[in-house]
Amino acid sequence: MLERLNDLPGDKILALMEMYREDPRDQKIDLGVGVYKNPEGVTPIMRAIKTAEKQLWEQETTKAYTGLAGDPAFADAMIGLVLGDAVARDQVAAVATPGGTGAVRQAFELAHMANPDVRVFVSAPTWPNHVSILKYLKLPVVEYRYFDSESGSVDVNGMLEDLAQAKPGDLVLLHGCCHNPTGANLTMTDWKAVVDVLKKTGATPMVDIAYQGFGDGLDADAAGVRMVASELPELLIAASCSKNFGVYRERTGLLMAVSQDSARQKTHQGNLAYLNRQNYSFPPDHGARLVTMVLNDPELRADWMAELEDVRLNMLSLREQLAQELQRLSGSDRFGFVAQHRGMFSRLGLSPETVDCLREEHGVYMVGDSRINIAGLNKNTVPLLAKAIIEVGA
Question: What is the residue range of 285's domain?
């Protein structure tokens, strides 16, 4: 049987990571992999997480399963962080998942259970794994316009025009903040326009929020999803703790199903628990418990928020520095959008040939569509990147 298996295409970002590791040059810059790095090039363990981990080591008395949905305290804490007071707690069903990716996968499966003919609308572009998972699940994908490469901003009119083609039973995937891979975000006016379109179409929104706190702050980054939750009949939310808590390898996420009809909560909760059982039974708990401890302890939460704000401001500073350096070297403001984008990523609008040239001639590694991870830079490498971009004729 197994001899019938075929080779599958490799993940482009993982291949890029391997190429970077094998590059012997001292002056090389890794802008590909999507993890936060501090100015020293390290993905640190956040102070509050480290403190919570020490406390957990001393207090934990069992490694028994927590339940199909995970620890209820984790769900409560994360629902509060993401949704605030946008909806009542009894309107939300939730399950812990292996990372934000696990939440995304479960959300797609839930949508297919609810409607076997579901179509999933995704932004052009979107995180490649969104499309990869949908294709694996054999769910139809419909792209909607999102990013205007010329201006480096959101094509709001095109987006709204395409979303108007959705219908009841369709799923519309939105990025909560810090859009991956472009870094271009919706304004609150844009969010309102999207909500109005979804009200007319009857389609169900799904928000993937993986970078809360990396853009304009914890509450500002969640403002869009809170508006959607409070104004539309139902909503799916895939939340990740990998970035804002730095617990990448602990695979900590939460899937939420929000309904204005609180009588549906029990049914939704049962379906979510059923999906967990089919895919991996009980979700991992270590990272979830650390996040819960941080969010529920006033001192740990304050320290976490302070460190997260330092992370956010560091990325904003790098954005501004890069935009200014490119303007100085080029004499134009064509890369000014970099300073306006938010989160770890920006798409520079370079051709694949230029991206190859940057890698081969300057040791600058970025994804083929010219997505860069701003957090892969520091104040010393920003001028090197800017100079390389100008020298290759971008």
Answer: 65-296
What residues pair up with 145 in beta bridges, in sequence order? 124
Residue among 203, 144, 202 nearest 175 (CA):
144
Q: Are 173 and 123 in contact (CB under 8 A)?
A: yes
Task: Give the active site residues.
Answer: 127, 208, 210, 243
In a domain, 94, yes or no: yes
Closest by CA to 298, choosing from 306, 289, 310, is 306
Domain boundary residue among 243, 264, 296?
Answer: 296
Mapping DSSP to helix (H, G, I), strand (E, B) and coil, where does residue 33 land?
A: coil
pLDDT in tens, 372-381: 999 999 999 9
322-344: pLDDT as tens digits: 999 999 999 999 999 999 999 99
- pTM value? 0.96
pLDDT exceeds cutoff 90 at 1: yes
* Number of neighbouring beta carbons within 10 Å of residue 153: 15
What does the block give as tokens for 307? 């460190």
